[in-house]
Write a structure and sequence with these properties.
- By secondary structure, the protein is mainly α.
- Helix content is 44%, strand content 9%.
- The protein folds into two domains: 1-32, no CATH class; 33-64.
- It has a two-stranded antiparallel ribbon.
- The longest helix has 28 residues, at 34-61.
- The radius of gyration is 21 Å and the shape is rod-shaped.
- It starts with a strand and ends with a helix.
- Bound molecules: zinc ion (ZN).
Amino acid sequence: MKNNLTSCLYCYTKNELIAERCSNCGMPLAKDHPENYKNKTSFFVKAFWGITLFCIAMIYYLPR
Ligand SMILES: [Zn+2]
C-alpha cells in the first residue's frame, strides 16, 4: 500500500512510515501522522478560547 510509504524530503527515496530516518541519505523523516493534525486543531481551539475570553474581559473592562 502506498499509504505505508513516505518520501524523504531530501532525496525523495520512499521509506516506510515506521522508519525514523531515510534508508538512503540518513536524514530524519518528517512525521505525517494524524496526531499532528490533532495538535494543530487543539492549538486553534486554544487560540479561539483565548480570543473569546479576551473579548469577554474587554466587554466588562472597557468604559461604556
Ligand atoms: Zn533521503
